[in-house]
Amino acid sequence: MDAMLLAAMVPGSAKGHLADLGAGAGAAGLAASSRVGALQVTLFERSAMMADFARRSLALEQNRHLRDRVDIVEADVTLTGRARVAAGLKDDAFEHVVMNPPFNPEADRQTPDRIKAEAHAMPTGLFENWIRTACAIAKPGGQLSLIARPVSIGDVIAACGRRFGGLQVTPIHPRVGEPAIRILVTAIKGSRASLILRSPLVMHEGESHAFSPAVDALNNGLCDYPR
């Protein structure tokens, strides 16, 4: 669900190249590629195992139409300088950058499985490191989109700093009257526009466990998130 909401933040009119940082099995990047036919998408993932899952997904017959527009690169998105460029994360190369980083507290690393732990728990300085890379690889005026827990909003804003401006933050609530469980953030490289706190996105109506019609449409790639 997080990946589908993140993919919906990419405008349907988008063109050029999109980078999915820490792509895992590629859910967000593949969803954006499926919905926006003019995008070239690169999935960047450090884990060889997760990158292999992304390749298997792309190899499915149902995804044949995406293969010419999606590349999968094994790379650590926290690399810097020449090492980052050598890994394929080139300067000023992408019109869009999306990220769904591991955002649970580092104390949540309870599983002995290293891959699962890295996929879910947030190391110190994560947003600073990832957003630094996002800024390096985004073209001037390029859009960054990410999803995180509300507790990370200060870290996200601080990491964007002078790199990205025009932040728009959308809180996601399970139901009316309940606290937000996620935030969606978009920002523009080099913008000096002020931060905007947008109307909340409410997942369920009343006591129902079904998604609202608007959320269901976003989840199934039937529309963009309204701007």
Question: Can you offer a commentary on this structure?
Answer:
Strand 2 (39-45), helix 3 and strand 3 form a beta-alpha-beta unit. This protein has a single domain (2-219), classed as Rossmann fold (3-Layer(aba) Sandwich), CATH 3.40.50. It has eight helices and nine strands. It is globular. The chain has 227 residues and is an alpha/beta fold.
User: Secondary-structure element sequence?
Assistant: HEHEHEHEHHEHEEEEH
Tally the beta strands: 9
Oligomeric assembly: single chain
CATH class: Alpha Beta
Present the secondary structure layout.
Blueprint: H1 2-8, E1 16-21, H2 27-35, E2 39-45, H3 48-59, E3 70-74, H4 81-86, E4 94-99, H5 114-120, H6 126-137, E5 138-148, H7 153-160, E6 164-173, E7 182-189, E8 196-197, E9 201-202, H8 213-219
Parallel strand pairs: 1-2, 1-4, 2-3, 4-5, 6-8, 6-9
Antiparallel strand pairs: 5-7, 6-7
Helix pairs in contact: 1-2, 6-7
Short description:
The protein has 227 residues and is of the alpha/beta class. It has helices at residues 2-8, 27-35, 48-59, 81-86, 114-120, 126-137, 153-160, 213-219; strands spanning 16-21, 39-45, 70-74, 94-99, 138-148, 164-173, 182-189, 196-197, 201-202.
